Amino acid sequence: MIEVIYILWLRQLKHYWRSKARLLGSLGQPLLFLVTFGFGFGPMYTRASGGANYLDFLAPGIVSMSILFTAVFSGLEVIWDRQFGFLKETMVAPISRTEIMIGKTFGGATIAMIQGLIVLSLTYLMGFRIPNLASLAVGLVFMFLIAIFFTGLGLAIASKMKDMQGFQLIMNFLIMPIFFLSGALFPLENLPQAIYFVSRIDPLTYGVDGLRGAIAGVSVFGIYNDLAIIGLLSVLVCLIGAFMFSKIEA
Which ranges does the record mark as transmembrane (predicted)? Predict the structure, then answer.
C-alpha cells in the first residue's frame, strides 16, 4: 500500500517539477496581491489599527491563497488522466481506489505546500518575519491541513466530472468566494452580520486564522480551535473523497 501511494505521490511531483511554466505562473497572482494590497492598503490599515503592520496581517492570507488555488486544481490531474487513458490503466491495476485517492491527495497537497513555502519566502523578502522556529512549525501544520482539505475537495469534485473546462468553471465559482470571505485580506471583526456568518462557515477561515495566529501572533478564534476545526474538516473531506473516488468510472 505504501509503495503504491509513494509512486502516485512521486508521479505528481515529477509532473509538477517538469512544468516550469506552471511553477512560475502560479506565483504571479500571490505576488500581485502582495504588492498591490500590501502597498496599496497598508497605510490605511496602519492608520485604522493604530500602527499595526498590514504585511504581518496579509502575508498568512496570501500564503493560504497560494495553497488553496494550487490544491483545488489538483483535481485537473484526474480529468487529464481520464482523457488520456492513464486513469483506466490505474483502475484495472491490482490496487484499491482508496490507495489511488490517498496517493493523489498527498501528491497534490505536497505541491500546494511547496507553492506555499515559496510564497512564504517571498513575504520574507518583503519584510515579513516569523517570530521563531516553533511558530514556523505550527504554521507548517496549518499549511499542510489547508493543502490536504482543498486537495481532497478538488479530487472529490473531479471524480464526478469529465469536462476540464466545466471543472475549472466550478472551481472558480467556489474558490473565489472561499478566498475572499476567509479573512485573508481583511479583519473579520466588525463585519455585517450576514457576511460574518458566511465567513464562519468558510473552511479556509480557520486555516487562515490558525496560520496567522501561528506565524503572526494574531488569531480571532484561537489556534487550538482553528486546529481542531480544520483538522476535522480535512479528515471528513478525505473520507468523502475516498468514497466518491471508489465510485468513479474511468
Answer: 21-45, 57-80, 101-127, 133-157, 169-188, 227-245
